[in-house]
Amino acid sequence: MNIQLRFFASIREALGTGQEAVSVPAHVQTVGDVRTFLRARGGVWAEALAEGRALRMAYNQQMTDASARISEGCEVAFFPPVTGG
Questions:
Q1: β-strand 2-7 against 75-79: which pairing, if any?
Q2: How many domains is the chain partitioned into structurally?
Q3: pTM score, whole prediction
Q4: Which of 3, 14, 21, 79 gets the highest tally of CB atoms within 10 A of its CB?
Q5: What is the largest CA-CA distance in the chain?
């Protein structure tokens, strides 16, 4: 399945990219699976998307949690939590 990835703020800076088109294997079926798949790349990917790290996720520009199912051509975005002040 082919999907679009978007990375924002400190996640983008850590990874050195703001977007990427990627083909994910059949076992990657949710937004959480996408995160796990990307962490498996190791290095900065594992660090920026680490399991215990506070991270927001969106599916097709709608806030979501890790259980959201992905589909062909969808957009999955990752970004740090934002606070106002």
A1: parallel
A2: 1
A3: 0.93
A4: 3
A5: 42
Q: Are 34 and 70 in contact (CB under 8 A)?
A: yes
Helix, strand or coil for residue 46?
helix
**Per-residue pLDDT band at 22 (split at 50, 70, 90):** very high
What tens digit of pLDDT does each residue of 26-64 get? 999 999 999 999 999 999 999 999 998 989 999 999 999
DSSP 24: P
Using alpha carbons only, give the angle 56, 61, 62 rounded to the nearest 5 degrees.
Answer: 65
Query: Could you identify the residue written with the tokens 């790290």?
Result: 53
Is residue 19 within 8 Å of 8, Cβ to Cβ? no
- Domain span at residue 8 reads 2-79
